[in-house]
Amino acid sequence: MPEDDNAAAAHRVQVKFEFYLVALTFTVLGLSVQTAKFGGLVVADALELFSWVVLLLSGLFGLWRLEWSPVFYHVSDRRDWSHEIARQARRQISSGVQQVGVSGEDRTFPVDEIVRMHEEAVSRFDKELDGLQNRQLKKYRVQRATLLVGMVGLVVARGLPAFLGLFGRPDLFS
Q: How far apart are CA 66 and CA 23, in angstroms?
């Protein structure tokens, strides 16, 4: 199905973007630490240090999100499996089957019980997925906001001395 291809492509792009964002954050942080020059303006120095802390937080939130991404996919896979079992069991009911054997069990089970059990499992998995998704979204918002604040802070910290120098006041915030 083309929709599945599009969904798979969207998923690949999203995963790459998540890794890119974390890599970008730590790269900018590392480069800013390596190229820092302190002693000019106290405000610029303080802003630079603040930006490092904020960028570190952004990177850590990104890593935290990446750590929990497989959990989301694992729960989603279990949900899909239970949904498929319930669908197959409903199909069995519609064709008149009342009892089915379950692999690994020595007895048969009522098909309607299998449907009920798996529909309950799907409901539990849906709630768990909602919670995971909400937590991941909150982490992403913090990651994005701290990256933005850190980047802007670095630009201002690095550009402030030059900007003040344009107006003949390089020592204004010393």
A: 12
